[in-house]
Automatic annotation (TrEMBL):
Keywords: Aminotransferase, Pyridoxal phosphate, Transferase. PROSITE patterns: AA_TRANSFER_CLASS_3 (PS00600). SUPFAM superfamilies: PLP-dependent transferases (SSF53383). Belongs to the class-III pyridoxal-phosphate-dependent aminotransferase family. It holds the Pfam family Aminotran_3. This is Aminotransferase class III-fold pyridoxal phosphate-dependent enzyme. GO terms for molecular function: transaminase activity. InterPro entries: Aminotrans_3, Aminotrans_3_PPA_site, Class-III_PLP-dep_AT, PyrdxlP-dep_Trfase, PyrdxlP-dep_Trfase_major, PyrdxlP-dep_Trfase_small.
Length: 417
């Protein structure tokens, strides 16, 4: 019998047969509340009728309009449409298929534009699994283990983690920025540093929002030294955090923005955005790909952006995120094993710790498994695997949030029993 590679790890035992809105159904038609959204991808829910219609129409017209051979209308329309939601000045786009590829494209652009090699990334960051993106990734050693040597020219600075270090956010931001300054004095000279890449909310590394003063500090240093600031918004973009882009919470803007996941409701599509001057420094022919900017994915992205606007999904993410975090905090108040509940919008994590404050991955795993049995699909994250995260589709309703909190409450009670 031919089987899938054992290198794949499946977080839940579900064999998905169909999806509808916030729900997934297995082959026995058992219904699950999908608070994984395909790792933050199905922003408009599973099979939103407008996304389905746009994709179906496109499939019958033009599936593959290979963009280094010919141009196609949907990609031009999408580019125009993204201009309405991108930060002012980031008006040049390049498309690929996945988050990892877009991360690599951003590194390529940053190196070409600055003539410098080094990239600063943050401890606990996740930027992907392709070799260049993996070299920037330290959310868990499994992504790097045994595949080295890694791409050189990467230096790591600490990300503020007040809860894990048992300190205040202000003290953590001071420490992280001081260590970044130290890194620029001792390890990677500003003259050799092309870019700083950061997630507005540390994702796979444990769902830790970057404090606004930290992001402002990165912006300041980038400006001072002519270093480019890259916002990896693969997971935080397109409304996920209750703002269209995660960096908006800090009131700063990046030089390069990376978007993927929620952009096309499940079709593979990612992009980097930068200003005209910066993008013009990319060496001709240096970016490309066979499938990038696929016509069906672009049509789905156009429909996704329409749904996000027409159904005010950014506002809904903020509103339901508030309802969800309040519910989760009530559950945590009853169960001291959940030491921290945090996040932004509909990107929320529950960190499990022992009474001594050590990471408690075993109880987190039991709660995660019990939740699936209760009909609530979730994921874990963090280097210790002790953070259970919730990333429902942005269309989630108050009633579905309440249903999820009730399932979660029962699941945690079972995990600690
Ligand atoms: N960057 C971030 C912040 C991510 O969360 C992810 C995926 N979890 C990636 C990059 C990589 O995206 P992909 O899996 O589509 O390559």
């Amino acid at each position: 019998m031919t089987e899938l590679s054992p290198a794949l790890k499946q977080a839940t035992p579900v064999l998905a047969a169909r999806g509808e809105g916030v729900y997934l159904f297995d082959e026995d038609d058992r219904r699950y509340l999908d608070f994984t959204a395909g790792i933050g991808v199905t922003s408009t829910g599973h099979c939103h009728p407008r996304v389905v219609e746009a994709a179906q129409n496109q499939v019958g017209t033009l599936i593959h309009g290979q963009y280094t051979t010919v141009m196609h209308r949907r990609l031009l329309e999408l580019t125009e449409r993204l201009g309405e939601v991108l930060p002012t000045g980031l008006d040049r786009l390049f498309y690929v298929n996945s988050g990892s590829e877009a991360v690599e494209a951003s590194v390529r652009l940053a190196r070409h534009a600055t003539g410098r090699q080094n990239i600063i990334a943050f401890s606990g960051g996740f930027h992907g699994r392709t070799m260049g993106a993996a070299a920037l990734t330290t959310s868990g050693v499994k992504v790097r283990a045994g595949i080295g040597p890694m791409m050189p020219g990467v230096a790591f600075a600490p990300f503020p983690e007040a809860y894990r270090h048992g300190t205040t956010e202000a003290a953590e931001v001071d420490r992280a920025l001081a260590e970044l300054d130290q890194l620029l004095m001792t390890t990677t000279s500003p003259k050799d540093t092309a870019a700083i890449i950061v997630e507005p909310v540390l994702g796979e590394g444990g769902y830790i929002p970057a404090p606004p003063r930290f992001l402002a500090g990165l912006r300041e240093r980038a400006d001072k030294h002519g270093i480019l600031l890259i916002a990896d918004e693969v997971q935080t973009g397109v409304g996920r955090t209750g703002a269209f882009w995660g960096h908006e919470h800090a009131g700063i803007g990046p030089d390069i923005l990376i978007t993927a996941k929620g952009l096309a409701s499940g079709f593979p599509l990612s992009a980097i955005a930068a200003g005209e001057e910066l993008m013009s420094k990319a060496w001709p022919g240096s970016q490309g790909g066979t499938y990038g900017g696929n016509a069906v994915a672009a049509a789905a992205a156009l429909a996704t952006l329409d749904v996000v606007r027409d159904e005010d999904l950014v506002g809904n993410a903020a509103e339901q995120g508030q309802r969800l975090i309040e519910g989760l905090r009530k559950v945590a108040a009853e169960h001291p094993v959940i030491g921290d509940v945090r996040g932004l919008g509909l990107m929320l994590g529950n960190e499990f710790t022992t009474s001594e404050g050590a990471p408690d991955a075993a109880t987190a795993a039991r709660a995660h498994a019990a939740a699936a049995e209760e009909g609530l699909l979730l994921l874990t994250c963090g280097p210790h695997g002790n953070v259970v995260r919730m990333i429902p589709p942005l269309i989630v309703t108050a009633a579905q949030v309440d249903e999820a909190v009730a399932c979660w409450s029962r699941a945690v009670a079972r995990a600690v029993a």
